[in-house]
Amino acid sequence: MSASPIVTGKPITPQPATYVTASGLPRYHPVAQALHWLTAALALAILPLAWVAISLPPTPAKGTLFVLHKSVGLTILAIVVLRIVWRMIRPAPPDPQAPRLLTLIGRINHWLLYAIFLIMPVSGYLLSALSGRDTPYFWLFTVPGLQKDEAAQKIAESIHVAGQWFVYALVLLHIAATVWHLVIRRDGLLERMLPVQDGRGAIR
Ligand code: HEM
Ligand code: HEM
After folding, report:
1. Range of the domain at 122
2. Is residue 25 situated within a structural domain?
3. Which of 62, 113, 124, 182 is deepest in the core (most CB within 10 A)?
4. What is residue 53's predicted lDDT score, i.e. its pLDDT?
């Protein structure tokens, strides 16, 4: 049976183009949805690019994978900044009803996801740039490097390499929570992040 559509949290400013899910939950704005799934797709792409790149011997293929890794990473940085700006303009819909502790964990997880997806590209750029090299963006242009500084470069590298564990943990927790909502609670939460499928529940 579907859970109650009652939501918790402060009421948000009415949004002209907003709509609800079939079970009555308010959805994320289509722009927030599009940016979310773009981040998710790029996040799933960037990890294997890194894993394969670091395991190859120094060959042209390794260089190509690193160009792709860095370019996708810089793209993620731009999208995450855009998501945060968009969230300020169009706040997220109120939280669905759930035990208070779980709602809090969900919120913390979301903010930590934003944080780690800013920390990773910034530390990645710094670990590259502080070796004095320019960073290529898809063979289109380069982002200028910085003055060589080995000590600072090592710090950026440690942050980047250790940061991956936060990426794995936070993304796994996030996906596990989505599966829990989908399979156990069956409360239509995933639908909040999906576009209207059949026009049901659309507010006009
Ligand atoms: C969301 C963004 C990013 C994620 C999730 C990410 C993830 C990773 C991971 C998992 C590794 C392998 C670490 C290891 O075990 O050695 C790695 C390595 C690396 N990344 Fe990223 N990265 C991101 C963005 C960037 C960006 C924007 C750049 C540069 C502009 C970059 C440059 C590098 C470099 C140079 C390495 C090799 C480090 C080494 O071997 O010491 N990354 N990244
Ligand atoms: C396949 C993987 C993913 C699935 C199934 C998924 C699913 C979802 C769902 C259903 C929501 C809406 C939660 C709600 O209604 O309150 C959401 C929100 C969110 N997701 Fe994901 N997600 C995935 C990957 C990612 C990744 C890689 C990131 C990394 C940045 C991410 C960051 C977020 C954030 C920050 C929010 C909260 C949005 C906000 O309130 O501003 N997600 N996700």
Report:
1. 30-190
2. no
3. 124
4. 98
